[in-house]
Amino acid sequence: MKCRKCKEKAIIKLYEHNLPLCKEHFLEFVEGRVQKAITDFGMVRKKERVLVVISGGKDSLTLAFLLRKLGYKISLLHIDLGIDGYSEISRKFCEEFAHLYQLPLQVISIKKEWGKGIKELARETYKSPCSLCGLVKRYYFNKFAYENGFSCVATGHNLDDMVSALMANLLGWRISYIAKQTPVLPEEGKLKKRIKPLVYLTEREIAAYAFLQRIPFSRQDCPYAYTASFLKIKHLLNQLEVSSPGTKYSFYLGFLKNKQLFGEGKVTLRECALCGFPTVTEICSFCKTFRKEEVRNYAGES
Ligand code: SF4
Ligand SMILES: [Zn+2]
Ligand SMILES: [Zn+2]
């Protein structure tokens, strides 16, 4: 198999594009796809400051590597979830990455903030670890970006993530969530812009890029990953992709073309009466979950 661009030996075939590439042209392809996503969706300009959220896994660390390589001004943020036997390793990879590539890193430790890890907090608040984790991460990313003057928050969601989230929401006809599966969620008041520059790349392409660039990343799975329902959908979509290469890509592009069918996914936001961050209700979900006593006092006063 020969590289389509230079006729040297190909190291990978991108089935969805029917494109065999050598190492040099594959690296160039990946970098080009990220730059194309940033340009196509007007994600960020080079003079703006981007907060890259990293978990220690391949997607977020490859995103940080790529944005740095493409000349963007980035800082890193890691949320230490306090999951014993997992979070210590994730954090270590984030710290090593920041050190290796000389990037500023901030760590927010859930145990330090709330005295307990996600597992214990989930039990106390009657939520699943994943729904609490999502709530906590979204709240802290946004708060940190807002308070530290970043223009946007970048996350490592790839094409597979976007397509499986889209499919999961379609299966449940959650229209407002469907509308939100776009590569950019615009800034609104204290809600910072969120961008997904890896949206044109599959998990396989990112893993191959990380391997070729020798990016050190954690290979462990979160102990709660098996509970995430979208993983099952991801698996089914992968099977479909094997028999019909390019399905995921064309499905997602089709969504982008027709997304107006699902409305703008816009809701009227107001400031939370306790913390001041955006919410659709009087008190945000984060405060309702973590500041129960203050919520009771507030309800008593008003
Ligand atoms: S699997 Fe669940 S708890 Fe673990 S990192 Fe993902 S969302 Fe958080
Ligand atoms: Zn080549
Ligand atoms: Zn609040």
| Major sheet size, sense and barrel closure | 6 strands, mixed
CATH architecture of the largest domain: 3-Layer(aba) Sandwich
CA radius of gyration is: 20 Å
CATH class of the largest domain: Alpha Beta
- Rounded mean pLDDT score: 95
Count of helix runs: 13
CATH evolutionary superfamily of the largest domain? HUPs
Please give the share of residues in helix.
40-55%
> Strand share of the residues?
5-15%
Sheet with most strands: strand arrangement: 5-4-3-6-8-7
- Please mark out the parts with pLDDT under 50 across 5 or more consecutive residues, or reply none: none
Task: Note down, in words, how this protein is organized.
The chain is built from 13 helices and ten strands. Helix 2 (58-69) packs across helix 9. It folds into two domains: 26-266, HUPs (Rossmann fold), CATH 3.40.50; 267-302, no CATH class. It is globular and about 75 Å long. The longest helix has 19 residues, at 129-147. The N and C termini lie far apart (71 Å). By secondary structure, it is an alpha/beta fold. 48% of the residues lie in helices and 12% in strands. Strand 9 (270-271) and strand 10 form a beta hairpin. Strands 5-4-3-6-8-7 form a six-stranded mixed β-sheet, sandwiched between helices. Strands 1-2 form a two-stranded antiparallel ribbon. Strands 9-10 form a two-stranded antiparallel sheet. Bound molecules: iron/sulfur cluster (SF4) and zinc ion (2 copies). One zinc ion binds at residues 272, 274-275, 277, 283-284, 286-287.
